[in-house]
């Protein structure tokens, strides 16, 4: 992975600021508008991001104390919390979003070097060092800042984050069913291969569009022969 702990802390801060700035001053009408995710209003998305900060704060607590503290009590509870959050008044939802982000930042700042090395378990069941927490958060806030459908695009995200995101998604897709694709970012020269079914399809375009394509978001990529870029299975 082409990322460092300093990178992920920076991207987490940048993504958090992008997300918070995007929703600043919103009232009920803006919050109730559709997000970029099918079936979710912006309230659903904001509730999800706020709940994610609280869940990652659980992992920070685990790293700090050694006491096993899962991100969520269950996936059913996670989904119920998002639904409940989507019904909160705009002001209450905004306060939860800000407060949860502040608590996560304060918790990570307080971790010692040894605590950063402590092992925790993600919601997907992966055992990782606590140094992975800022990366998990940066993915959430950066990608979902785009999903707010409020004007933020993948082109507004840090280039280093986009490269790391493409690395991360490609790694996860390598063992998933789907078409074989070779991707090249025309503005950076970076290249990714997705093994899969059939002869590989060559797809090229700007790094921001490559990252959007891999993440399953709207994009402007086509194959080099002019045909549509192959549809990919879900990322997460």
From TrEMBL:
It comes from the Bacteria. NCBIfam families: maleylpyruvate isomerase family mycothiol-dependent enzyme. GO terms for molecular function: isomerase activity. Keywords: Isomerase. Residues 16-149 form the Mycothiol-dependent maleylpyruvate isomerase metal-binding domain. SUPFAM superfamilies: DinB/YfiT-like putative metalloenzymes, SCP-like. The keyword Isomerase applies. This is Mycothiol-dependent maleylpyruvate isomerase NagL. The keyword Isomerase applies. Coiled coil: none annotated.
């Amino acid at each position: 992975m082409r990322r460092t702990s300093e990178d992920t802390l920076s991207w987490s801060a940048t993504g958090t600021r992008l997300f918070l700035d995007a929703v600043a001053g919103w009232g009920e009408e803006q919050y109730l508008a559709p997000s970029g995710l099918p079936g979710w209003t912006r309230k659903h998305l904001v509730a999800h991001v706020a709940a994610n900060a609280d869940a990652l704060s659980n992992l920070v607590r685990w790293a700090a104390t050694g006491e096993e503290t899962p991100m969520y009590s269950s996936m059913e509870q996670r989904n119920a919390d998002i639904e409940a959050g989507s019904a909160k008044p705009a002001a209450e939802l905004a306060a939860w979003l800000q407060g949860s982000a502040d608590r996560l930042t304060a918790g990570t700042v307080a971790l010692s070097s040894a605590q950063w090395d402590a092992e925790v378990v993600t919601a997907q069941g992966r055992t990782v060092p606590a140094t992975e927490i800022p990366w998990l958060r940066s993915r959430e806030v950066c990608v979902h800042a785009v999903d707010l459908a409020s004007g933020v695009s993948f082109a507004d995200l840090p280039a280093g984050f986009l490269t790391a995101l493409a690395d991360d998604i490609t790694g996860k897709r390598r063992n998933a069913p789907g078409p074989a694709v070779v991707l090249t970012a025309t503005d950076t020269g970076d290249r990714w291969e997705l093994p899969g079914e059939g002869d590989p399809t060559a797809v090229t375009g700007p790094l921001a569009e490559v990252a959007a394509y891999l993440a399953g978001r709207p994009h402007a990529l086509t194959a080099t022969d002019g045909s549509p870029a192959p549809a990919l299975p879900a990322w997460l």
